[in-house]
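Hi team,

As requested, here is the filled-out complex form for the iron/sulfur cluster run. I kept the field names the same as last time so the parser does not choke. Let me know if anything looks off before we queue the next batch.

— J.
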Amino acid sequence: MVYREYGNTGLKVSVLGFGGMRFGDPEDHDTSAEMLLHALKKGITYFDTAPGYCGDNSEIIFGKAIKEMKKTGIPFYVSTKSNKPKGSDLRRDLENSLKRLNLERIDFYNCWYVLTLDDWEGRKRGGAVAEILKAQEEGLIRFPVFSTHLPGNEIRNVIEEGYFRGVTLGYSAINSPYREDGIKAAAEHNMGVVVMNPLGGGTIIQNEETFSFLKVKENQTILEGALHFLLLDPRITVRLVGFRNLNDIDTAVSAVDSFVPYSEAELAGIRGHVESDFNSLCTTCMYCNVCPVDIPVWKFVETANGLFFNTDEKLSDRLKWHWGTDISVLDRCTECRKCEAACTQHLPILQRFEQLKTHIKMENQGG
Ligand code: SF4
Ligand code: SF4
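And here is what came back:
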Protein backbone atom coordinates (compact mmCIF):
# COMPACT_ATOMS: atom_id res chain seq x y z
CA MET A 1 0.00 0.00 0.00
CA VAL A 2 1.07 3.54 -0.66
CA TYR A 3 0.41 6.36 1.85
CA ARG A 4 0.11 10.08 1.24
CA GLU A 5 -0.05 13.18 3.44
CA TYR A 6 -3.63 14.37 3.85
CA GLY A 7 -3.18 18.06 3.00
CA ASN A 8 -1.65 20.01 5.87
CA THR A 9 -3.14 17.85 8.64
CA GLY A 10 0.08 16.00 9.38
CA LEU A 11 -1.73 12.67 8.86
CA LYS A 12 -0.60 10.08 6.35
CA VAL A 13 -3.42 7.97 4.94
CA SER A 14 -3.65 5.10 2.47
CA VAL A 15 -4.17 6.12 -1.16
CA LEU A 16 -6.98 3.57 -1.36
CA GLY A 17 -9.96 4.26 0.91
CA PHE A 18 -12.76 2.02 2.13
CA GLY A 19 -16.11 3.38 0.91
CA GLY A 20 -18.88 2.06 3.16
CA MET A 21 -21.74 2.49 0.67
CA ARG A 22 -21.77 -0.81 -1.23
CA PHE A 23 -21.71 -3.68 1.28
CA GLY A 24 -22.90 -6.85 -0.47
CA ASP A 25 -25.20 -7.80 2.41
CA PRO A 26 -25.49 -4.81 4.74
CA GLU A 27 -28.00 -6.61 6.97
CA ASP A 28 -25.23 -9.07 7.86
CA HIS A 29 -23.33 -6.81 10.25
CA ASP A 30 -20.74 -9.42 11.32
CA THR A 31 -19.61 -10.35 7.80
CA SER A 32 -19.60 -6.70 6.71
CA ALA A 33 -17.61 -5.62 9.79
CA GLU A 34 -15.01 -8.30 9.01
CA MET A 35 -14.44 -6.56 5.67
CA LEU A 36 -13.18 -3.42 7.45
CA LEU A 37 -10.80 -5.44 9.61
CA HIS A 38 -9.55 -7.29 6.52
CA ALA A 39 -9.00 -3.97 4.70
CA LEU A 40 -7.06 -2.56 7.66
CA LYS A 41 -4.80 -5.61 7.70
CA LYS A 42 -4.27 -5.16 3.95
CA GLY A 43 -2.99 -1.62 4.58
CA ILE A 44 -6.12 0.54 4.06
CA THR A 45 -6.29 3.20 6.77
CA TYR A 46 -8.99 5.61 5.47
CA PHE A 47 -12.59 4.53 6.12
CA ASP A 48 -15.57 6.54 4.89
CA THR A 49 -19.21 6.16 5.85
CA ALA A 50 -22.35 8.28 6.30
CA PRO A 51 -25.72 8.12 8.01
CA GLY A 52 -28.19 6.46 5.67
CA TYR A 53 -25.67 4.47 3.62
CA CYS A 54 -26.81 0.89 2.91
CA GLY A 55 -30.24 1.24 4.48
CA ASP A 56 -28.63 3.07 7.41
CA ASN A 57 -26.57 -0.01 8.30
CA SER A 58 -23.15 1.38 7.30
CA GLU A 59 -22.34 3.38 10.44
CA ILE A 60 -23.51 0.49 12.62
CA ILE A 61 -21.23 -1.91 10.71
CA PHE A 62 -18.36 0.56 11.06
CA GLY A 63 -18.98 0.87 14.82
CA LYS A 64 -18.86 -2.88 15.23
CA ALA A 65 -15.65 -3.12 13.19
CA ILE A 66 -14.00 -0.15 14.90
CA LYS A 67 -14.19 -1.92 18.29
CA GLU A 68 -12.03 -4.70 16.83
CA MET A 69 -9.85 -2.39 14.73
CA LYS A 70 -8.80 -0.47 17.85
CA LYS A 71 -7.44 -3.72 19.32
CA THR A 72 -4.99 -4.19 16.40
CA GLY A 73 -3.01 -1.08 17.33
CA ILE A 74 -2.84 -0.13 13.61
CA PRO A 75 -3.67 3.56 13.11
CA PHE A 76 -6.77 4.26 11.01
CA TYR A 77 -8.94 7.26 10.21
CA VAL A 78 -12.71 7.56 9.96
CA SER A 79 -14.79 9.96 7.90
CA THR A 80 -18.53 10.53 8.22
CA LYS A 81 -20.96 13.28 7.31
CA SER A 82 -24.05 15.37 7.83
CA ASN A 83 -26.04 17.16 5.15
CA LYS A 84 -28.16 19.15 7.61
CA PRO A 85 -28.17 22.93 7.01
CA LYS A 86 -29.39 23.72 10.53
CA GLY A 87 -26.70 23.68 13.23
CA SER A 88 -28.78 21.87 15.87
CA ASP A 89 -29.76 19.14 13.37
CA LEU A 90 -26.14 18.66 12.34
CA ARG A 91 -25.16 18.40 16.01
CA ARG A 92 -27.71 15.62 16.49
CA ASP A 93 -26.27 13.77 13.48
CA LEU A 94 -22.75 14.18 14.85
CA GLU A 95 -23.65 12.89 18.33
CA ASN A 96 -25.48 9.96 16.80
CA SER A 97 -22.51 9.14 14.54
CA LEU A 98 -20.06 9.26 17.48
CA LYS A 99 -22.22 6.83 19.42
CA ARG A 100 -22.80 4.46 16.49
CA LEU A 101 -19.16 4.50 15.42
CA ASN A 102 -17.83 3.87 18.96
CA LEU A 103 -15.57 6.89 18.65
CA GLU A 104 -14.72 9.78 21.00
CA ARG A 105 -13.75 11.90 18.03
CA ILE A 106 -14.30 11.76 14.26
CA ASP A 107 -11.15 12.32 12.19
CA PHE A 108 -12.82 13.84 9.13
CA TYR A 109 -16.33 15.31 9.44
CA ASN A 110 -17.94 16.30 6.16
CA CYS A 111 -20.34 19.12 5.49
CA TRP A 112 -21.97 16.61 3.18
CA TYR A 113 -23.27 16.78 -0.37
CA VAL A 114 -23.01 20.50 -1.14
CA LEU A 115 -24.87 20.51 -4.44
CA THR A 116 -25.18 24.17 -5.43
CA LEU A 117 -23.76 27.47 -4.24
CA ASP A 118 -27.23 28.35 -2.89
CA ASP A 119 -27.11 25.16 -0.89
CA TRP A 120 -23.68 26.17 0.41
CA GLU A 121 -25.00 29.58 1.48
CA GLY A 122 -27.81 27.74 3.28
CA ARG A 123 -25.28 25.63 5.24
CA LYS A 124 -23.65 28.80 6.52
CA ARG A 125 -26.91 30.63 7.17
CA GLY A 126 -28.46 27.66 8.95
CA GLY A 127 -25.48 27.26 11.31
CA ALA A 128 -24.15 23.92 10.01
CA VAL A 129 -20.68 25.27 9.26
CA ALA A 130 -20.44 27.10 12.62
CA GLU A 131 -21.52 23.93 14.41
CA ILE A 132 -18.79 21.88 12.68
CA LEU A 133 -16.16 24.42 13.75
CA LYS A 134 -17.51 24.47 17.32
CA ALA A 135 -17.40 20.67 17.49
CA GLN A 136 -13.79 20.82 16.35
CA GLU A 137 -12.96 23.19 19.22
CA GLU A 138 -14.69 20.80 21.60
CA GLY A 139 -12.52 17.96 20.31
CA LEU A 140 -15.40 15.97 18.79
CA ILE A 141 -14.09 16.49 15.26
CA ARG A 142 -10.47 16.42 14.25
CA PHE A 143 -10.69 18.06 10.82
CA PRO A 144 -13.67 19.82 9.16
CA VAL A 145 -14.01 18.84 5.51
CA PHE A 146 -16.73 19.02 2.88
CA SER A 147 -18.10 16.75 0.24
CA THR A 148 -19.57 18.12 -2.93
CA HIS A 149 -20.96 17.59 -6.39
CA LEU A 150 -20.33 21.16 -7.50
CA PRO A 151 -18.43 21.81 -10.72
CA GLY A 152 -14.72 22.65 -10.32
CA ASN A 153 -14.92 26.46 -10.38
CA GLU A 154 -17.61 26.49 -7.67
CA ILE A 155 -15.61 24.04 -5.54
CA ARG A 156 -12.84 26.61 -5.75
CA ASN A 157 -15.20 29.29 -4.34
CA VAL A 158 -15.99 27.16 -1.28
CA ILE A 159 -12.33 26.21 -0.75
CA GLU A 160 -11.26 29.84 -0.89
CA GLU A 161 -13.58 30.71 1.99
CA GLY A 162 -11.13 28.77 4.15
CA TYR A 163 -13.34 26.69 6.48
CA PHE A 164 -12.13 23.23 5.48
CA ARG A 165 -8.99 21.06 5.48
CA GLY A 166 -10.13 18.67 2.77
CA VAL A 167 -12.69 17.96 0.09
CA THR A 168 -14.42 14.78 -1.08
CA LEU A 169 -15.65 14.86 -4.65
CA GLY A 170 -16.70 12.58 -7.50
CA TYR A 171 -13.81 12.21 -9.91
CA SER A 172 -12.83 9.54 -12.38
CA ALA A 173 -11.36 9.09 -15.79
CA ILE A 174 -14.86 9.92 -17.08
CA ASN A 175 -15.44 13.30 -15.49
CA SER A 176 -11.97 14.56 -14.59
CA PRO A 177 -12.13 17.78 -16.65
CA TYR A 178 -15.47 18.68 -15.02
CA ARG A 179 -13.91 19.02 -11.54
CA GLU A 180 -10.33 19.83 -12.52
CA ASP A 181 -10.39 23.38 -11.15
CA GLY A 182 -11.63 22.11 -7.76
CA ILE A 183 -8.69 19.71 -7.50
CA LYS A 184 -6.34 22.48 -8.55
CA ALA A 185 -7.74 24.84 -5.89
CA ALA A 186 -7.41 22.14 -3.20
CA ALA A 187 -3.76 21.62 -4.14
CA GLU A 188 -3.08 25.36 -4.04
CA HIS A 189 -4.52 25.48 -0.51
CA ASN A 190 -2.67 22.32 0.60
CA MET A 191 -5.91 20.47 1.29
CA GLY A 192 -6.60 16.75 1.24
CA VAL A 193 -8.56 15.46 -1.74
CA VAL A 194 -10.69 12.32 -1.46
CA VAL A 195 -12.12 10.99 -4.68
CA MET A 196 -15.43 9.13 -4.74
CA ASN A 197 -16.51 7.05 -7.69
CA PRO A 198 -12.99 6.49 -9.10
CA LEU A 199 -14.41 3.77 -11.32
CA GLY A 200 -17.15 6.01 -12.69
CA GLY A 201 -19.80 4.17 -10.67
CA GLY A 202 -19.02 0.97 -12.57
CA THR A 203 -19.32 2.56 -16.03
CA ILE A 204 -15.61 2.14 -16.73
CA ILE A 205 -15.50 -1.52 -15.74
CA GLN A 206 -18.71 -2.27 -17.63
CA ASN A 207 -17.43 -0.57 -20.80
CA GLU A 208 -13.97 -2.03 -20.86
CA GLU A 209 -13.62 -1.74 -24.62
CA THR A 210 -14.58 1.94 -24.71
CA PHE A 211 -12.19 2.71 -21.90
CA SER A 212 -9.39 0.48 -23.16
CA PHE A 213 -7.25 3.60 -23.66
CA LEU A 214 -6.79 3.48 -19.87
CA LYS A 215 -4.87 0.22 -20.21
CA VAL A 216 -1.45 1.46 -21.23
CA LYS A 217 0.78 -1.18 -19.62
CA GLU A 218 1.16 -4.78 -20.67
CA ASN A 219 -1.40 -7.10 -18.98
CA GLN A 220 -2.98 -4.17 -17.12
CA THR A 221 -6.64 -4.78 -16.22
CA ILE A 222 -9.27 -2.08 -16.71
CA LEU A 223 -9.59 -1.71 -12.91
CA GLU A 224 -5.84 -1.18 -12.66
CA GLY A 225 -5.95 1.28 -15.55
CA ALA A 226 -8.70 3.37 -13.91
CA LEU A 227 -7.06 3.38 -10.47
CA HIS A 228 -3.55 3.95 -11.82
CA PHE A 229 -4.81 6.95 -13.80
CA LEU A 230 -5.85 8.55 -10.51
CA LEU A 231 -2.73 7.36 -8.66
CA LEU A 232 -0.68 9.34 -11.14
CA ASP A 233 -2.15 12.56 -9.77
CA PRO A 234 -0.19 13.62 -6.67
CA ARG A 235 -2.92 16.12 -5.76
CA ILE A 236 -5.35 13.29 -4.97
CA THR A 237 -4.90 11.86 -1.50
CA VAL A 238 -7.46 9.01 -1.30
CA ARG A 239 -9.45 7.05 -3.91
CA LEU A 240 -12.58 5.69 -2.23
CA VAL A 241 -13.85 2.39 -3.58
CA GLY A 242 -17.21 1.00 -2.41
CA PHE A 243 -16.39 -2.60 -1.54
CA ARG A 244 -19.03 -5.33 -1.79
CA ASN A 245 -16.94 -8.21 -0.46
CA LEU A 246 -13.44 -9.38 0.50
CA ASN A 247 -12.57 -10.14 -3.11
CA ASP A 248 -13.24 -6.49 -4.11
CA ILE A 249 -10.81 -5.37 -1.41
CA ASP A 250 -8.08 -7.81 -2.49
CA THR A 251 -8.47 -6.86 -6.16
CA ALA A 252 -8.27 -3.12 -5.49
CA VAL A 253 -5.31 -3.49 -3.10
CA SER A 254 -3.37 -5.51 -5.65
CA ALA A 255 -4.32 -2.96 -8.35
CA VAL A 256 -2.67 -0.26 -6.22
CA ASP A 257 0.33 -2.48 -5.49
CA SER A 258 0.93 -3.08 -9.20
CA PHE A 259 1.22 0.63 -9.97
CA VAL A 260 4.31 1.78 -11.86
CA PRO A 261 4.79 5.38 -13.04
CA TYR A 262 3.74 6.30 -16.60
CA SER A 263 5.80 7.96 -19.28
CA GLU A 264 4.82 11.43 -20.52
CA ALA A 265 3.62 9.92 -23.82
CA GLU A 266 1.36 7.39 -22.04
CA LEU A 267 -0.12 10.16 -19.93
CA ALA A 268 -0.70 12.49 -22.86
CA GLY A 269 -2.52 9.68 -24.70
CA ILE A 270 -4.95 9.15 -21.82
CA ARG A 271 -5.55 12.86 -21.27
CA GLY A 272 -6.31 13.38 -24.94
CA HIS A 273 -9.10 10.82 -24.79
CA VAL A 274 -10.48 12.01 -21.48
CA GLU A 275 -10.64 15.66 -22.39
CA SER A 276 -12.30 15.11 -25.70
CA ASP A 277 -14.68 12.26 -24.96
CA PHE A 278 -15.87 11.77 -21.41
CA ASN A 279 -16.99 14.91 -19.67
CA SER A 280 -20.71 14.39 -20.01
CA LEU A 281 -21.53 10.86 -18.93
CA CYS A 282 -23.79 9.55 -16.22
CA THR A 283 -21.76 8.01 -13.38
CA THR A 284 -24.80 6.17 -11.93
CA CYS A 285 -24.46 8.02 -8.63
CA MET A 286 -28.28 7.98 -8.31
CA TYR A 287 -28.61 11.42 -6.78
CA CYS A 288 -31.37 12.01 -9.33
CA ASN A 289 -33.53 9.59 -7.38
CA VAL A 290 -35.94 12.42 -6.56
CA CYS A 291 -38.61 11.96 -9.19
CA PRO A 292 -42.14 12.77 -7.97
CA VAL A 293 -43.58 10.23 -10.42
CA ASP A 294 -41.03 7.54 -9.53
CA ILE A 295 -39.09 7.38 -12.77
CA PRO A 296 -35.72 5.67 -12.10
CA VAL A 297 -33.94 8.47 -13.93
CA TRP A 298 -30.40 7.05 -13.65
CA LYS A 299 -31.40 3.87 -15.47
CA PHE A 300 -32.29 5.91 -18.54
CA VAL A 301 -29.40 8.38 -18.39
CA GLU A 302 -26.85 5.60 -17.86
CA THR A 303 -28.37 3.76 -20.80
CA ALA A 304 -28.08 6.99 -22.80
CA ASN A 305 -24.30 6.85 -22.13
CA GLY A 306 -24.40 4.19 -24.84
CA LEU A 307 -25.21 6.92 -27.37
CA PHE A 308 -21.62 8.10 -26.92
CA PHE A 309 -19.98 4.69 -27.22
CA ASN A 310 -19.33 2.35 -30.09
CA THR A 311 -21.31 -0.57 -28.82
CA ASP A 312 -23.15 -3.44 -30.43
CA GLU A 313 -25.59 -3.61 -27.53
CA LYS A 314 -29.11 -2.43 -28.35
CA LEU A 315 -30.05 0.26 -25.86
CA SER A 316 -33.59 -1.11 -25.60
CA ASP A 317 -32.00 -4.42 -24.56
CA ARG A 318 -29.86 -2.67 -21.99
CA LEU A 319 -32.97 -1.03 -20.51
CA LYS A 320 -34.80 -4.33 -20.50
CA TRP A 321 -32.12 -6.81 -19.39
CA HIS A 322 -29.70 -4.70 -17.40
CA TRP A 323 -32.12 -2.30 -15.77
CA GLY A 324 -35.41 -4.18 -15.92
CA THR A 325 -37.37 -1.26 -17.32
CA ASP A 326 -38.83 0.07 -20.54
CA ILE A 327 -38.71 3.33 -22.49
CA SER A 328 -42.50 3.78 -22.10
CA VAL A 329 -41.90 4.59 -18.41
CA LEU A 330 -40.69 7.99 -19.61
CA ASP A 331 -44.23 8.82 -20.75
CA ARG A 332 -44.94 9.61 -17.09
CA CYS A 333 -42.40 12.46 -17.07
CA THR A 334 -43.99 15.84 -16.28
CA GLU A 335 -40.80 17.73 -17.20
CA CYS A 336 -40.55 19.23 -13.71
CA ARG A 337 -36.73 19.04 -14.05
CA LYS A 338 -36.17 18.09 -10.38
CA CYS A 339 -33.84 15.35 -11.58
CA GLU A 340 -31.77 17.85 -13.57
CA ALA A 341 -31.43 20.09 -10.52
CA ALA A 342 -30.19 17.13 -8.48
CA CYS A 343 -27.84 15.68 -11.10
CA THR A 344 -24.27 15.62 -9.83
CA GLN A 345 -22.93 15.86 -13.38
CA HIS A 346 -25.36 18.67 -14.30
CA LEU A 347 -26.48 16.61 -17.29
CA PRO A 348 -29.27 17.75 -19.64
CA ILE A 349 -31.42 14.79 -18.57
CA LEU A 350 -34.58 15.66 -20.51
CA GLN A 351 -32.54 16.08 -23.66
CA ARG A 352 -30.95 12.66 -23.03
CA PHE A 353 -34.44 11.17 -22.61
CA GLU A 354 -35.44 12.52 -26.02
CA GLN A 355 -32.23 11.28 -27.67
CA LEU A 356 -32.76 7.86 -26.12
CA LYS A 357 -36.39 7.71 -27.27
CA THR A 358 -35.38 8.57 -30.83
CA HIS A 359 -32.56 6.03 -30.80
CA ILE A 360 -34.79 3.24 -29.48
CA LYS A 361 -37.48 4.08 -32.02
CA MET A 362 -34.88 3.66 -34.75
CA GLU A 363 -33.70 0.38 -33.21
CA ASN A 364 -37.28 -0.90 -33.24
CA GLN A 365 -37.60 0.07 -36.89
CA GLY A 366 -34.43 -1.88 -37.57
CA GLY A 367 -32.39 1.29 -38.18
S1 SF4 B 1 -38.28 15.84 -15.13
FE1 SF4 B 1 -39.40 13.93 -15.39
S2 SF4 B 1 -37.95 12.34 -14.76
FE2 SF4 B 1 -37.15 14.29 -13.97
S3 SF4 B 1 -37.94 14.40 -11.89
FE3 SF4 B 1 -39.41 15.48 -13.19
S4 SF4 B 1 -40.94 13.95 -13.76
FE4 SF4 B 1 -39.17 12.85 -12.95
S1 SF4 C 1 -28.26 11.30 -14.22
FE1 SF4 C 1 -26.86 12.54 -12.99
S2 SF4 C 1 -27.54 12.27 -10.85
FE2 SF4 C 1 -28.49 10.69 -12.09
S3 SF4 C 1 -27.14 8.93 -11.85
FE3 SF4 C 1 -26.52 10.01 -13.71
S4 SF4 C 1 -24.89 11.40 -13.06
FE4 SF4 C 1 -25.96 10.73 -11.21
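Two things worth flagging: The pocket of iron/sulfur cluster (ligand 2) is lined by residues 282-288, 297-298, 301, 343-345, 347, 349 (CB under 6 Å). The mean pLDDT is 91.

Thanks,
J.
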